[in-house]
Amino acid sequence: MYGYAGKILRINLSNGKVSLSPLEEVVAKRYIGGIGLGMYLLIKNSKAGVDAFSPENPLILTTGPLSGTIAPTGGNGHAFVSKSPLTGGLGESKSHGFFGTELKRAGYDAVIFEGKAEKPVYVWIDDDNVQLMDAKALWGKSPQETEDMIREDLGDYYVRVAAIGPAGEKLARVACIMNDKTRAAGRTGLGAVMGAKNLKAIAVRGTKDIAVAKPEEFLEFVKMLHERMRGPATEKYRTLGTPLNVLVHNSLGALPTRNFTNATFEGAELVSGEYLNKQFVAKIVGCSSCAMRCEHLAIVSEGPYKGTTTRVEYEPLWAFGPHCGVDRLDAIIKAMELCNLYGLDSLSTGNIIGFAMDCYEHGILSKNDTGGLELRFGNAEAMIEMVHKIGKREGLGDILAEGVKRAAEKIGKGAEKYANHIKGLEMTGYDIRGLKTAAIGYAVSFRGADHNRHGAYAIDLKGAVDRFKVEKGRSKYVIDIEDLYTIIDSLMVCKFSRGVYYKEFEDLARYYSLVTGIEMSPKEMRRAGERINNLGRLFNIREGFTRKDDHLPPKVMSTPIPDNCVSKGSYISQEELDFMLDDYYAHRGWTRDGIPTPDKLNELEMDELAYIVEGKIKK
Amino acid sequence: MASIHARKFVSSDPEKCVGCCVCEYICSYEKEKVFNPLKSRIRVVRLDSLINMSLACRLCENAPCVTACPRDALTQSKETGIILVDEDKCNGCGWCIEACDYGAIMIHPEKRVVFTCDLCDGKPKCVEWCPEDALDIVSTDTLAQKARISAVRKLFQETTKR
Fold it and tell me: What DSSP character marks residue A427?
């Protein structure tokens, strides 16, 4: 098999047993790799209704078919898939860098971690040799320190490490898994799944060759992609980076501010991508085999946070900036760095702190609760103190580390009104009150509040449709991008490169065929994308999700945008949401309750999973 | 070409290099038809996220690796300065690796003999493929020329702005 190592590694942490099984070509072709393959392995290797922290909940790590080749952005990533401690549904998260390529060279398409280690361990995958190593000395250390210590310990500087920080060890439900020091598989709290397994880190060294099926044509194709990556499709990422969004969203009244109170931020200029690049960005670097480079590394050179350095992207910048009403970039960068050190999902963490600020402003939380902190919007020092508290699970931080949904339940007093999440996953930086195509994607996404499962905001922001209206057929756009995005995440190409596949499925199918030698038509590729979206749905249905879980954050449905801007007065009513869902389910070929029909599953060659919907479909 | 330019080598501009490893991949493919950084003659070093650059053989004058080899397996071409490895004589003892200050000569993971950059007949694939134009094939003299020009340019910044 080209493109695939053809092997799945299974590691039982309870008894230290390691076994191998083959990856069958039919499964590979149906689910591609990355999240698709990960979700398939999860649904096959887990039982319904198991707690996310139970030893019976496996953690699955996958690479993609392009991993380890020169394909630009192709498979320099890896995906973690498991049941999410935050949502209780499907948890998946990807990260790029150098870890995934190393795993592929070690000879594995996927690794399944089962059970729970008795005491802290890290897994050392050295080509064919897999061992559990003692991690007592690493426990309590940051992911970055862990990486350095493991390299020292093993005596090889090219070992790649994915590790959790103190937050993951303490089962913070917003913990992430860090690799290559600044990259994170951030969302859905999978760091806590590793923590629950007493698994501190995964260290990999792979030395095997990677060959492709049609090397000459493949290299030509890659050359062409390199050319395209120098062009306008990726310009944003190469220049200002994602923080460019700040001013764009602000001008369109789509920048959620102060926990979705406003949709424009008066301090936007001060936290803009333009200002960031002028004042803070020291260097822009890239991942393995990437021809774009997008990783904007910022350094704070003066003031109280002097010496702070981190990678900056729009979402965490938004979460600690406009969302908390903070207009100081140095403090925002500090908060992000702390998230890296504690191993926290910076997006969720910022969102939660904004929620706590909102509660404080409304008198639901008092100084007694916050340990004396004046937790008002815009208080940067208090925000940074809160990150420490969440990372260490101290005081209020202990409650907030449970994620915004559980925290609101624990705080009570009507705090739910301010908890902006979908399915338990914290909301991201798009004010969907005035982005009604994106809102569909958000509501139905299988991992909760997430712009990365559908990307439909682009349609709204470009003005291709009337974004303040719901209308029949709008779901079709969402579905088109959803199916493309699952392929992008399964091939493990980077989403920032999405613009260079001019013919979308045709280009991606060709990419796949050149590497693997497996014939794949654009139509089959599209169907694989649809299949993977249905798979996510099936997992959630198996875990008891219903139509009512396809909801929107409370503020989006209760508070019309108050600002004097183009979006003024816009919000989403229950009627509109119901209309959206009906429209979407119909286009997907699902029932009115959002359940894939047996016919649909048959069409997608997913009969083996049809048992999940049996008895759930109302006649 | 004047003889001062006879010895050219691949140099990486640390200002431009982003540590993406495309050079490693294309080198191993060019020489061995597989993608594997361990079989690449140019190697990327990422010290932390801010410090990264790639390194290849610098074709030293009186190359220490050649001097160090106890089995006379290494010779240096008089015309080009390239280090030539006689694979029959090399036994992978590693004296040359110890002698090289740059880690630019390595043991081949399968053949167990040493290998190093041979400049692809004067048209290095890594230079052609580098997406950031961070690699160039230069002689020590052109490096100095470039440095002088940019230093003088900086000195006269004000003049050139007009």
Answer: P
